[in-house]
Amino acid sequence: MYYKIGLLFDGPNMEISKVEAKYSDQQKKDTMEQIYKILSKNHKIVKIQVDEKISENLVKSGVDIVFNLSTGVRGESRQSQIPALLEMLGIPYVGSGILAHSLALNKAMAKEIFQYHGVPTPAFQVFQTGEESFDTKLTFPLIAKPACEGSGFGIHKDSVVYDEQGLMKKVNELLGKYEPPVLVEEFIEGREFTVGVIGNGKNKRILPILEIDFEDVPEEVGKFYTFEVKNDFGDQTKYHCPAPIGSALEKSIMESVSRAFDVLGCKDIARVDVLVKNDQPYIIEINSLPGLKPLHSDLPKMAVVAELSYKELIMEILDVAIERQIDRLPEFKPKVINL
Ligand SMILES: Nc1ncnc2c1ncn2[C@@H]1O[C@H](COP(=O)(O)OP(=O)(O)OP(=O)(O)O)[C@@H](O)[C@H]1O
Ligand SMILES: [Mg+2]
């Protein structure tokens, strides 16, 4: 019994202008091949590379459901492009929908929603032009970052500012380099965690919490997840999973993460970044399309600690998506046996 599943992945050179593109292309390809191997044991898998012909190729493929690994082709709402197309074509898919991906990609919008729903997030101000007057309710130090980037782009030691003059200088520098807006938030000097979520509603599985420890990272690159730390100081960055925290803190992190996932409208899978100061968790962002490279990405690492093999992790992600959309899926097809 099987489904016909479209495995959608990005082709090379989608973001050729970025230096990091080549490395991430290879990672994405490896991930796709691993997932292909796993899913093809129980289902019929059609690999589909995402490009401008994706719509036509999807229709031709006749797939029942899509396992999407693509971050879209280009543009500010790129992660929503594949979900939008699939929604238009009426094809169910694994993972978050159009709105949740768009919100997750724009940290400022995500924080407005968190704030509205009382999900704890650092106090913040959004700068569109640099002409805005500073909100003096914010307490220094602050961190300024591009609202719509990821992978540590625009995050350096000097992103942390200590007075209004330093802040406005940094805001204007970022506005000149990246698409607006610039997000400014109170800098939480505490511990950093990332949390994997699989599932929906009350049936979510929160994977063991992973702590990122910057103790051994040299002071000059910043003792937080700067671009430099992410890329050049991996060996000095320590990861603890499960995080060595008490059960009360664990519970409050899990509750905040689960609420953050729900209020943004995420589906099936996400990874949520959390800072903790004085036992208070603060949600800083949600990655709605988290990396799934075996043994390398955070989510598969957390799964190992939960005693979920990589195969079980992938199957579970597919299963929760199937369960959520079972009414929209055809009956399982009988497997054709060639005698
Ligand atoms: N308000 C804050 N207080 C303290 N540290 C922060 C704050 N915001 C961001 N950071 C630090 O900067 C890092 C990068 O920030 P953020 O997650 O917003 O950027 P990113 O580029 O989207 O990262 P990712 O690689 O997760 O996509 C965080 O992991 C954290 O170490
Ligand atoms: Mg982050």
* Percent range of helical residues: 25-40%
Q: Which architecture name of the largest domain does CATH use? A: 2-Layer Sandwich
The main sheet comes to: 6 strands, antiparallel
Can you count the beta strands?
13
Overall radius of gyration: 21 Å
* Alpha carbon gap, first and last residue: 17 Å
* Helix/strand structural class: alpha+beta
Q: How many independent structural domains?
A: 3
Shape: globular
Count, helices = 10
Bound molecules: adenosine-5'-triphosphate, magnesium ion
- Classified in CATH, the superfamily of the largest domain is ATP-grasp fold, B domain
- Please indicate the percent range of residues in DSSP E strands (runs of 2 or more): 15-25%
Class of the largest domain in CATH? Answer: Alpha Beta
Low-confidence parts lasting 5 or more residues at pLDDT below 50? Answer: none
* CATH-defined topology of the largest domain: D-amino Acid Aminotransferase, Chain A, domain 1
- What is the helix/strand order? EHEHEHHHEEEHEEEEHEHEEHH
Overall pLDDT, averaged?
Answer: 93
